[in-house]
Amino acid sequence: MTFLAIDVGNTRLKWAQYASPQPGAGLIAQGAVFLETIDHLAETDWKNLAPPTSMLGCVVAGEGVKRRVEEQLELWDLEPRWVVSSREAAGVTNGYDHPNRLGVDRWVAMIGARHRVLAQGRPRPVLVVMVGTAVTVDAVDASGHFLGGLILPGFGLMLRALEMGTAGLKAPTGEAVDFPTNTSDALMSGGADALAGAVERMYRKLRARTGEEPALVMSGGAAVKLAPITELPFETVDTLIFDGLLELQSRRTAL
């Protein structure tokens, strides 16, 4: 009853194989590849995997990339199944004006974060921050209702925009510091503070809206860059989207 979870982002495909399609299932294998190399998964990373019984994935990279992944899944007799954002799933309700237009990675991450908070004790609001090519900051109240969220450019997009639009500025190799005294540190610190400020501002709004301290959960490949900046208590969860996929698949299996 092994289960394959797939997260196809804008830059990389991440995958994980679990012993069963249940939250908390044992991790058998995992990996990540850049989208440019996904056409070789069947003959490289996935070649020696035990055939999974089921799979569920989320993809934001477009239909062409999804078809390429499905071609690699032909290695096994496995029906590809992909999450679509909906009005409700796994106890989370979607407050987007058009629920099906919400990015599916955001939707699955919120489901994962919601159930992570529930597993820790009482229901409470949660702020879900995904730090990747773009940064999303999504607010969920204690009842599991998605209130709304922000989309910002990630570190790389910010820095490239400055490099293209400003004479003499180059993408830095600097660090985020309190009082930058060189251009590289000034660029990196400006990007980090902009993102941290958005997170902290949304945190205060969610706290004011719900009347209690939210949990702050951060994930994504570039979360490590933001983690040292925010002054709020937070938890970094690398597997947040996989946690959401496991939760969703467990409910499919139970039907």
Largest sheet: 7 strands, mixed
CA-CA gap between termini: 16 Å
User: What is the count of DSSP helices, taking H or I runs of 4+ residues?
Assistant: 6
Overall helicity = 25-40%
Please tell me about this protein's structure.
The longest helix is centred in the C-terminal third of the chain and has 28 residues, at 183-210. Helices cover 33% and strands 24% of the residues. It is globular, with a radius of gyration of 19 Å. The chain has helices at 63-73, 104-119, 155-165, 183-210, 223-226, 240-254, and strands at 3-8, 12-18, 27-34, 54-59, 88-89, 92-94, 126-131, 134-140, 145-153, 215-219, 235-236. It has 2 domains: 3-82, 2-Layer Sandwich (Nucleotidyltransferase, domain 5); 88-244, Nucleotidyltransferase, domain 5 (2-Layer Sandwich).
Summarize the structure.
The protein has 255 residues and is of the alpha/beta class. Helices cover 33% and strands 24% of the residues.
